[in-house]
Amino acid sequence: MATDDFLDAEEQTVVMVMTSGPSTPHRCATPFYLGAVLAAMDCEVHIFFTMEGVKLMQKGIAEPLTAMEGGKRVIDFIRDAKRAGVQLHVCRPALPGYEIDPDTDLIEEVDSVARASDLADLMLRADKVVSF
């Protein structure tokens, strides 16, 4: 594929819906890596955590977690994505099911604790929506 075949990503908005969590660690690095790449290409990138995905935003969960044995820690992928400009949103309605208190239990990288309607708004204005 020639370089000219790639879309100009500038001003594109990508929303990733992250439902995977610590029970499927092999699925937990790629969204952050891809998000960082897209943000570096001048895309506006949002990752919205719902279902078990909210556990990745809980203090103490992503720190020891790796997608593969001996691999980079998921928290480091999260921090790389944040440095690149990816915005992280946690689904408020999903938190009680995992006994997560949004005021005390979330990592500092979280940008917002959001409602399902916020996700709907993000999806409707996005150029691309991807789920993991």
Automatic annotation (TrEMBL):
Native organism taxonomy: Bacteria, Pseudomonadati, Pseudomonadota, Gammaproteobacteria, Chromatiales
The protein, known as: Uncharacterized protein
Source organism (scientific name): Ectothiorhodosinus mongolicus
Top-level taxon: Bacteria
Pfam families the record matches: DsrE
